[in-house]
């Protein structure tokens, strides 16, 4: 399976400012996946010790039914959009379009459903997930009903602000709503010390910073405005962040530029920009993950994972 082959090579993220120069590209082709974007995240670290971890979202799914070739099977098979390992327990947290928030035991097997909503409100489009490892907190987003349309022009022009940020405390097993009014929250990343959480707002073309700890705890602010729509955001080992940004023609909604932007979460500045447009013409990039001096690029529309490096 393409996801697991890639996973073995991605152990953790390593920062290098030289990444923005002299790129070459290799393509990892995937026979089945238009969602390879969201699996390139920190859970891949754990495949150093746990390889080929088998798990299922539902007890009745089969390889024949849920091999990724049949997009209409998502309502039956599920569609995991966010994944993250708890490094202390070995549990794999899963955020699934159909089945909500789940967890898989370290040995694999059938996923346990933790929540499908909160206080009578059902998750609509659960999307991005990241874990504060030190404090055992899982942060995840619900992007909002507008994304059910799957129509890019409708989504971009909607100015929707129905997105939400949730927090799950793995120690107390409690779920809380931390922030609402988000404009297409497709990415979430926790700072190394857990003081704040960065949220990519796809519709509003910006990154928001939510303070989880300290004197500003519970408040949020716009950290930086971006030239296009950011999908996932991932923290590097040096505690800055890479956002996957797509710039669209607002008349045709075709991709004009694809960028990986390195963001300083403390200062709110874009430190470097990697132009990926030549390799992703008319495609949407959705993730930029840094690992051992290379960038791994995910896409929700391309049939390969791009590997960029010197």
Description:
5% of the residues lie in helices and 45% in strands. The chain has helices spanning 2-7, 74-77, 152-157, and strands spanning 24-29, 55-56, 80-85, 92-96, 100-104, 109-110, 112-115, 117-118, 121-122, 126-132, 137-142, 163-169, 174-182, 185-190, 196-201, 206-211, 220-225, 229-235, 241-248, 255-264, 269-275, 285-291, 294-299, 304-309. It has a four-stranded antiparallel β-sheet with strand order 1-24-23-22, with no helix packed on it. Strands 3-4-5-7 form a four-stranded antiparallel β-sheet, with no helix packed on it. A four-stranded antiparallel β-sheet has the order 10-11-12-13, with no helix packed on it. The longest helix has 6 residues, at 2-7. The protein has a single domain, classed as TolB, C-terminal domain (Neuraminidase), CATH 2.120.10. Residues 1-25 and 28-52 have low confidence and may be disordered. With 310 residues, the chain is mainly β. Belongs to the strictosidine synthase family. It comes from Coffea canephora (Robusta coffee). Its main location: other. It is found in: Vacuole. Residues 1-17 form the signal peptide.
